[in-house]
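Let us practice reading a record.
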Amino acid sequence: PNTCRNLKRNIAHSVPKKKFIQDTQLKRKFDIFFLVAGIAILALFTTRYRMPFRLDDVLLMLWAKTNSIASVFDPIKGQMINSFRPVFTLAAFLLSRLAGWDHPFWWHLMLGLSLLAGITFMGLTARYLIQRWYALEISIALYWIAFLPILNIFFWYSDLTFGLEIAFTASAWYFGLRGLYESRLGYWLFGMMLGALAVLSKEPAFVLVHVVLIGSFLLDRHSIVEKWGRSSNIRRIFAIAGYALVCVITIWVAFA
């Protein structure tokens, strides 16, 4: 009888362990596949499939040619196409001055990297929240399926503002939520910095950043308050100050 019980116990312990190993191996294979696919997409859109400059792009370049870097953060001089987006304006300024008008490679590289970074961090955020490794792969696959019909429209340079917004917003979600749920001040402050850059990139980030962070806090406020309650006062003050700064920047850009 003892031998039978020990055998059953060993089988019961070995099954979850075997499944964990299989899941880890499968996760690694899919992660490698998506990484290679991302590199291939980046190579394709920086070498073979490069869009020509269009009228909106020419406006960006003319602005960069006739303004200084100080104008980037001026609510009046820094407006492009009736919008004040300092991070986008700064990216366009640097690309126009450093990459020039005749070299679309660097423009496409910036565009492709921002898009891929945003999609990656959206997947990482989904994986972190759902606690299932395949949430990343499903999220990325659904994104490409949804945007495939208009992919050729995205890859023009004025839409760099969307690429920057999604890259900074999604990474702000990932680091901000990890900092919030795990009471990790470094992650939280880094997420707030990324959130501020998202807000400075494009207006929809006003909603995307704040709604996700505030909504997540409200949904799990008891656990979050308990974890942060075990932290020192100075850590809590820094955490509150970090989010307050993002709110101040949001208000400044909204009413500038």
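A brief commentary: The two ends are 79 Å apart (CA to CA).
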